[in-house]
């Protein structure tokens, strides 16, 4: 009969194995929690709201409460049922959801703009697939009542102009309450939302309706910016808006030849920069771009579509910021724009999300360390001489 002492001795190897297994589980869990959850807090915590340049010269009415904190992102491209692999969907949607929810919690913006291409397959989606995509989007980009979410339309949501139909446009507008030529005014700041796919200029039904709304809105804004003592019959019956120069939001960029002049770590790669842009496909046509500039004389233009960053000055004074894609499927270093905006000024700052290559590097390093720990535990890391000597001794004993 075995004594209690001998039983405890025999149980020691089992306890050591369980202890080692528990340590491995804790190590793997820690790596997963950091790479899939905590890393978003670590990275986004470093982003700070920019100071408005004219803040020091604000009057009594333009206090800190009048600064609108806006987040601008673009091209989320939620994968659909046709081209989207389930693992790719799971990975990309988790990344965007964690990034967005972390940014909301840490930065607490007043408003968030998504500049189109919300879905990857909206132009093809059946009613059932569309409903599923919308459900997933609403879960990923859920937000508190204190933060407003404004979504613009992109070519992947309703198709390029030749694919665009009234049904697809209405389907998008019903879900996101979006119409081309819609004005949003917050804290005295005017934002003009444009359906850039409808700026084809060929007189199609959707195009005519969109342009008519933009022209009417342009008239209201121009009348609102006239001095109080300026009398005009054309403006006598117009409901006045805040006199702030508008900010233009759209999916397609205004016309530019290429991304050759764009710079920065998230600009287009060198092999793509000099490829000429195709009008009405990569960028708006020159005619449509001129119309928008004439109609609204914006102080800032924000666009997406190219998946890369770019800053352009139109007419030598009007900046346009092309916002990179928010999805890791489109780039290794996604980002979003943080804007501090007042009726008379604005300041923008880019906030980068975790680089996917760095996340993979962490996983590879953790995997290598895990392998070393396993080899050490099973005593397979002994010097070659002693390992060979042990094999010889076993052979002689046999």
UniProtKB/TrEMBL annotation:
Record's keyword annotation contains Transmembrane helix: yes
GO CC, any one term: endomembrane system
Annotated transmembrane regions: 20-43, 362-387
Keyword hit for Membrane: yes
Stretch forming the signal peptide: none
Calcineurin-like phosphoesterase domain span: 69-308
Chief site of localization: endoplasmic reticulum
Matching CDD domains: MPP_MPPE1
Matches recorded under InterPro entries: Calcineurin-like_PHP, Metallo-depent_PP-like, MPP_MPPE1, PGAP5/Cdc1/Ted1
Pfam families (UniProt xref): Metallophos
MF annotations from Gene Ontology: metal ion binding; phosphoric diester hydrolase activity
Domain of life per record: Eukaryota
Lipid bilayer topology: Multi-pass membrane protein
GO biological process assignments: endoplasmic reticulum to Golgi vesicle-mediated transport; GPI anchor biosynthetic process
Keywords, sorted A to Z: ER-Golgi transport, GPI-anchor biosynthesis, Hydrolase, Manganese, Membrane, Metal-binding, Transmembrane, Transmembrane helix, Transport
Cofactor(s) needed by this chain: Mn(2+)
Record localization: Endoplasmic reticulum-Golgi intermediate compartment membrane
Stated role: Metallophosphoesterase that catalyzes the removal of a side-chain ethanolamine-phosphate (EtNP) from the second mannose of the GPI-anchor protein intermediate. Participates in the glycan remodeling steps of GPI-anchor maturation to allow an efficient transport of GPI-anchor proteins from the endoplasmic reticulum to the Golgi.
Sequence similarity: Belongs to the metallophosphoesterase superfamily. MPPE1 family.
Protein name from the UniProt record: Metallophosphoesterase 1
Gene: Mppe1
